[in-house]
Write a structure and sequence with these properties.
Blueprint lengths: L1 H18 L5 H9 L10 H9 L5 H11 L8 H11 L6 H14 L3
Helix pairs in contact: 1-2, 2-4, 3-4, 3-5, 4-6, 5-6
């Protein structure tokens, strides 16, 4: 039981770090990158929030888009594809737009 509490506390701290714009960018990017190895479906919305936030760093947003590409077995895959399809046309950063396209292709098996 203590292990579960500890894991939940750690998860909450990690999620807070990702959205904390005053935190070091390198640490935020590192936390987002961890989703590649542990794509937790219930946290996909956090990555979408980061991706949509144009006031945030472009490299962090691109990393969020790339991390979403690892949710290939998520029960929310169709939802993610819909959200990414909505984000794509309005994205102005070419690198982020390219990563969103790659992520859509990964999730759709292309």
């Amino acid at each position: 039981l203590e292990s579960i509490r500890s894991a939940n506390k750690s998860k909450q701290q990690d999620m807070a770090l990702i959205t904390d714009k005053s935190a070091k960018l390198k640490e935020r990017i590192s936390e987002v990158s961890r989703f590649r190895n542990h794509p937790a479906s219930d946290e996909a919305d956090l990555l979408l929030t980061v991706l949509r936030d144009r006031t945030d760093d472009a490299e962090l947003r691109k990393t969020a888009a790339e991390a979403l590409g690892w949710f290939t077995y998520s029960y929310r895959k169709e939802y993610l594809l819909e959200q990414l399809a909505q984000i794509l046309p309005s994205e102005t950063d070419a690198a982020i737009q390219n990563e969103v396209k790659k992520t859509i292709n990964r999730l759709s098996g292309k």
